[in-house]
Structures are given as C-alpha cells and as structure tokens.
Specification:
Layout lengths: L1 H29 L2 H15 L1 H4 L22 E7 L8 E6 H7 L12 H10 L2 E6 L16 H37 L1 H15 L3 H12 L3 H12 L1 H14 L3 H8 L4 H9 L4 H24 L11 H7 L9 H28 L1 H6 L1
Antiparallel strand pairs: 1-2, 1-3
Helix pairs in contact: 2-6, 2-15, 6-7, 6-9, 6-10, 6-13, 8-9, 9-13, 10-13, 11-12, 13-14, 13-15, 14-15
C-alpha cells in the first residue's frame, strides 16, 4: 500500500508540473513576451545610446584593431623581424598559439600566460610582436580599424530606429491617403492608383535604390525617401479593401445625408475603421524596413559612413570572417533578433485584431 501511495503521489506531482509548464507555455503563446522584451530593449537602447555605450563609436584606436571579445582567445596583431624602424611589421591577426607555430615558436603554458610572456617569447626568437589581449574594456571586441563593437551596435540601434520610424511615417501617410481615395471614389481614380501600385511592386527596389544613391548621393534624406516609397504599397492595397466595405455602411450614408464633406467622411468616419489594419501592416513593415536598410548599408548604398549601421558593420567584417568572426556576427544577430521579433509581434497583432482569426483561435 505504501508503494502504491508513493506512486500515486509521484504521478500527481508529475501531472501538476506538466500542468504548470503547460500554463506557462500557453501564456507565452498567447502573449509575445520575448518579442516585446527585445523590442523594448531596442527602443531603450536607441534612446539612451549615449549613456549605455562604453566608448565613442566613431573613434578608432589602431591598438584595438580586430581585438577579440572578452571570452575569446587573444590574438597577435602583427610581427616584424628585428627592431629596425624601417622594417614594416607583417599583419598576422591570428590566435596566440597559431601565430607562434607560424613563426616556429613552441607554445607552452609559461610563454602564453599573459601579453608580456607572449611578446617575450617572440623577442627571444628574434621578432617584435604586437599582441592584443582581450579585456572587459571591450566586451564584444573591436572592428577592423579599432572601434569598439558594442558601442557601434548600441548606436546602430538608434540610427535604425530614427531612419525606419521617419521612413515608415512617410510611407504610411502616402499609402493610407491613396488607399482611402482609391477605395472611396472608385472608378478611374481607383484604377489609376492600383495600376501605379502594381507597377511599383514589380520594380526591383534594391536596384532602384542603388541607382538613386549613385545619382543623388549617399545621404540620410535619400535613404529615408527610398525606404518611405518602399513601404507605401501594402497600405494602399489593404486600406482600399477596408474602405470598399466601410463606405457601404449605414453610418457613412447618414453622414452623406447630413451634409458632411468628403474629407470629414474619410477622416472621421472611415479612417477609424481601418486603424487595426494599419497597425498590423506598420508592425510588419518595420521589420522589413530594418532588414532593407541593413541590406542597403551592406551594399554601400545605405547609411553614410562613418555613422554606425548594422548592415555596414556586417560588411566591414566580411574580409575578416575567418580570423575576426565577431565583427560580422554580433550585428547580424542584432538584425535577426529585431526582424524576427517584429514579425512575431505583427502576426500576434493580426490574430488579435482580426475578428475572424480571433474566433478561430
């Protein structure tokens, strides 16, 4: 009986733990906790970038070039034969043990214990070595010209927020206005607006952006305009679809009978009915705009240097991917997390704000 009682108690405890885990998982599925946390962190980081960044993101220190993150292996920056000032050092940028073997020096626990020991081992072999030891001063390491990587990622968050927010507002105003006009008036106006939208959707945007940058220069204004005209098309199509349904409602007909102007009907009676759709589209478009801005910066057609931009930072680390992987990796992770969080949040908002999907759930 005791064994049976113990087994029943154990099964009851396991069942309670499963129920608790199920409740936690259900809560996480119902509410986008992780995406919201990451987005709040992004906004907080962007606003307080000057306070949070440990170093100036624009100042380059040659001694910090390609230094590894604090948990990574320290590296040998360069080596030269003898101490002749006319002899230029040979760039190495390799871990300590690998660099020692390259110059026929046997690594041991004693000669790899610290920076002074490594340099002494090279000097004993007839070389002058410049060694960079990873430290907590540069937690994520340095880039290819010695700028602090963590500081550039933090300031890159601010740049992305400002550029994407302004571009989204610009595209939203254009797209929502055109969608309201096309859906309300219909006829030839609707046909012209929708054909222009279809033509624009068929254009290769990246190619258009590169040509525009070549023609007008690489500036923040050009980038915001390019991202803005990229983001207006989904607003047109979705808002137009909502207006086609809303304009047949009784309250719109009553507003016409009461003598309300067309502008008042559109702004005060029809536009509020499209807010849910606009919010969902805007959330999804922010992720795409951040990704597009990163792609343009990676191709050299985005945010002008030396301003920190995640896409440009990924491109800066591309030639050093074998020896200094962190230069491209951490900005790439930032892009991935932000875009995925925005996509998850947009899907959640769509499910919550669409009555049909809400009933299915």
């Amino acid at each position: 009986m005791a064994q049976v009682q113990i087994s029943e108690d154990l099964l009851r405890q396991i069942g309670a733990e499963k129920n608790s885990l199920g409740e936690i998982w259900g809560f996480i599925r119902r509410w986008p906790i992780i995406p919201l946390f990451l987005l709040v962190l992004l906004i907080f980081t962007g606003i307080f970038a000057d306070v949070l960044a440990p170093h100036d993101p624009l100042i380059a220190r040659p001694d910090n070039r390609n230094i590894p993150p604090v948990w990574e292996t320290s590296i040998v920056l360069n080596v030269k034969m003898g101490d002749d000032p006319l002899v230029f050092p040979e760039p190495v940028d390799k871990p300590i043990e690998e660099a020692m073997l390259l110059y026929n020096i046997t690594p041991t626990l004693e000669n790899t214990a610290n920076q002074e020991a490594v340099e002494a081992a090279f000097k004993e072999a007839g070389y002058l070595a410049k060694v960079k030891w990873s430290s907590w001063e540069h937690i994520l390491g340095g880039d290819n010209i010695g700028r602090d990587l963590l500081s550039r990622i933090i300031h890159g968050a601010r740049v992305s927020l400002v550029v994407v927010t302004v571009a989204l507002i610009f595209g939203l105003l254009i797209g929502v206005s055109m969608g309201l006009v096309a859906g309300y008036f219909g006829g030839l106006i609707d046909e012209v607006i929708m054909r222009v939208t279809d033509i624009w959707l068929g254009l290769p945007f990246i190619l258009v952006a590169i040509v525009a940058v070549i023609a007008f220069g690489q500036t923040f204004t050009i980038l915001i305009i390019l991202l803005g005209i990229l983001s207006w098309t989904p607003f047109v199509r979705n808002v137009r679809g909502e207006v086609l349904s809303l304009k047949t409602r009784d309250y719109v007909s009553l507003a016409k009978v009461a003598g309300c102007s067309t502008f008042r009907i559109l702004v005060w009676h029809i536009l509020p009915g499209t807010i849910n759709t606009i919010i969902v589209i805007a959330t999804l478009r922010v992720g795409q705009l951040i990704l597009t801005e990163a792609i343009l910066s990676f191709l050299g057609a985005g945010i002008p240097p030396p301003t920190p931009a995640w896409g440009a930072m990924v491109n800066d680390g591309r030639p050093y991917i074998n020896d200094a992987w962190w230069i491209s990796f951490f900005p790439g992770v930032a892009i991935f997390l932000v875009v995925m969080s925005l996509n998850f949040l947009g899907d959640w908002l769509r499910d919550r704000l669409d009555p049909r999907l809400r009933q299915l759930n």
